[in-house]
Amino acid sequence: MSIINLENITKELIAAKKIAIAGHIRPDGDCIGSCTALYLYLMNNCHELGIEQVDVYLEPFGEEFNILPGTDKIRHSYDYDESYDLFISLDSSSLDRIGNAIRYFNSAKRKISIDHHITNENYADVNHVVANASSTCEVLYNLMNEDKINEDIAMCLYVGIIHDTGIFRHSSTSDKTMEIAAALIRKGINFTRLIDETFIQKTYTQLQVLGRCLTESVLLLEGKIIVSHISKKTIDFYGLAYTDLNGIIDQLRTAKNTEVAVFIYETDFNEHKVSLRSNGIVDVSKIAHLFGGGGHVKAAGYSMVGTVDDVIIKLLPQIKAQLT
């Protein structure tokens, strides 16, 4: 089923008294922004649609995102006695990315997926995936009635867009992306504050860890790849949440003459999360998908069991194959 605008799924919403919204594990700005934007949009129109309850489920995230309206309504724990008429998945390319909310997905009468990842597996009853969009927030904006987007919703959508475009620096940024950003600014949002507080500012500890990751990075394949790793022991020593590591991969990517940046961090003993960024030649989404992950041509990730050396040994041939 193809969705052209939000009105096309009005029948899904009208049929649903109870709705669950969830994003992906380790939520980023686009995930948080899209979930809160949709929550606010549905709540503002709940009487018209006959909706009685809307719940949002996300894993804990950085306190910098508390600037967004609706984040105080997000549930970080799960009551599995709850069941929903409709489950809406945002910014999640596959079911394993939904995390603990999968139980609500499985028990829901109907499922909708709204996403922009080219690796999306079309796992819902209704799938709206726009792979050339900059972000799920951009996709969501185009599904909404623009007249019903107020300042609060605009804040959430704008934050999602700036995070997934690296403040409009990534190649996924299009003229349409910029037009949407302008329309959101016209809603009266304090866009400079949103950029500064959710994207630019870092705590002293975050800066220390960033410096350490940059200092301990290494160049491989004749300087075409830059790799950095941080162990769980180091993460625990600094008292970090995994959200504190956001942005490190993008700093690694700026190394001149490199084609691929790799950031590996240990989530448990011999369990690692791998983030990949490409500067153009390598399609990292194909590599991530090979290892059970997903993402975009220039930004992707996956998880892997094994030592950090195991991760690198398995990863390098895949990158090298695209460089030759």
Automatic annotation (TrEMBL):
It holds the Pfam family DHH. Gene3D superfamilies: 3.10.310.30, inorganic pyrophosphatase (n-terminal core) (3.90.1640.10). Residues 18-161 form the DDH domain. This is Uncharacterized protein. Residues 239-305 form the DHHA1 domain. The lineage of its organism: Bacteria, Bacillati, Bacillota, Clostridia, Lachnospirales. Transmembrane segments: none annotated. One of its GO terms (molecular function) is nucleic acid binding.
